[in-house]
Amino acid sequence: MSKTLRIIFLSLILFLLCGPLIVVSGVSLNAKKRLFFPPEGISLRWYAELLTESSWLIPVQNSLTIAFTSSFIALSIALPLAYFLWRYRVFYARALFTLGISPFILPPVITALGFLSFWVTIGFYGKMGATMISHAIFFVTLPLVTISLGFESIDPEIVEAAQTMGADSRTVFKTVVFPMIRPYMISGFAFAFVLSLNEYIVAYMVSGFTVETLPIKIFNSLRYGYTPVMASVAVVFVLLAVIIFGLIGHFGDLPKLLGAMNPEEK
Amino acid sequence: MIGEKPKGIGAHLPLAYPALMLGIFFIIPFGIMVAISFFHRQPGGFYIPGFEFTNYQNLYTVLFGRTLLFSLFVAGLSAAICVSLGFPFTYFITRMRRRAQVIWLVFLMSVLSLSEVIIGFAWSLILSRTAGISNLFVWLGLMEQPKAWYPGFAALLFGICYLAFPYTVLVLYPSLSRLDPALPEASQTLGASPLRTFFTVIVGSMRNAMVAAFVMVFVFTLGVYLLPQILGRPRHWTLSVLITDQAIYQTNMPMAASMAIFFMFVSLLLVALTMAIGKGKKIEVK
Fold this sequence. Notes:
The complex is a heterodimer of chains A (266) and B (286).
Chain A: H1 3-27, H2 45-52, H3 54-87, H4 91-105, H5 108-122, H6 128-138, H7 141-152, H8 156-164, H9 169-198, H10 201-207, H11 214-223, H12 228-251, H13 254-257
Chain B: H1 8-36, E1 40-41, E2 47-48, H2 54-57, H3 62-94, H4 98-113, H5 116-126, H6 133-140, H7 153-177, H8 182-189, H9 194-205, H10 207-222, H11 227-231, H12 239-249, H13 253-285
Antiparallel strand pairs in B: 1-2
Helix pairs in contact in B: 3-7, 3-10, 4-7, 5-7, 7-10, 8-9, 10-13, 12-13
């Protein structure tokens, strides 16, 4: 396709994707409690409010705690499953893998309603622990897929070599396999972490009235009038995502994680 | 060591914990939801165990039918837009140098991870009167005075496409990045224009990937919950909004559960149907 056409097309998409982000960052800098773009006067007070005002600080803490714990639980479920699936190719492990992927494929409201009926039935509705476990199950897909990719990338000859040299399977796992899949574990954790921070409907259904997470807080404040604090939260979220994915892109192999062929093979 | 059969109970130990977690916290919740959809609802928000089809019969209303059709329509339309824009876009990205690819991917992942509420908020700002794009048009002399362009159907469509576009690209990325560069080269050597090469060779060889991407994006956009409430009017509310409303505000869990299960079957059916059409076409071409 001709080069100019391609550049115009790419810039148009870039503009459409960046547009809302630029307006949001502009609005977050307003000096007064108004949402103007371009901003009238420049100040960082709305960012400060995010860290000082308890009505925003508590959701920030809730979201971070939930995201951290749930992605850790998700990782702990995904690692043994992916390991087992790599080592023994048996149908029940494959079935469990499919099960681990399904919450991500169905429309989220269905899974969310399932969680709601479960926690209400056993009497844990509205507890932060319920949100953590629900998020862990909901996002287990991400570490599961990345860690499985990691296992697939291990050259079987390396494992064989370690065994020939006399290592038992525990030693092989600790000294050979684990270091090779560690980057994939980190990216799986990071994906789950970022998505959990941004998740709304599961968190809302499971304990939205008692445990306010940031997305819930933003949506609640949308109803009672806009403030520039919401814009500053959005900016922080975007920056956080850019930093985390940027680190993965810098240290890891992002194209491969997302399913591209090895660049050497190209 | 790899690919052998597990020997004895000890070898199965690593599987116990994931199986327990997924069983208790995914299969059982799902089972409870299915059970509740057959329970009897009592006035006042409670429900008692039972087995009746009342909740499914109650689905047969104008509101439910209209909402279901609207959800499917809006998801199909935005999936079509996303795939037709995302396909050439992804193709261009996969032909870039590795470094440029990584930068684009980081950017796309960051947009993809954004919460619906943030995207809704951003679009409501950009379409608003005080901070919106209409101010730019006024400044350029294209409009008399700034104007609010939301809530409305167009605003909702923009929001959903913004949400789903990065997802579309990531779904298309693996298959397009594996496309053999020799294919378009051969076509151009044989005298086809770049545009013609794109539409015949690249689109042609990637038809299945496009159908698969359409289905994935369709199901993804079926799930939108906040955008219709922020950018749309009540008549633009989707099934996700209706289900949540039944569950939380009408405290009618049996109704919400039956809706959710019906919704699941409809989406699975559509996925199967689209896949079948995609396969049929492939046979035809051969």
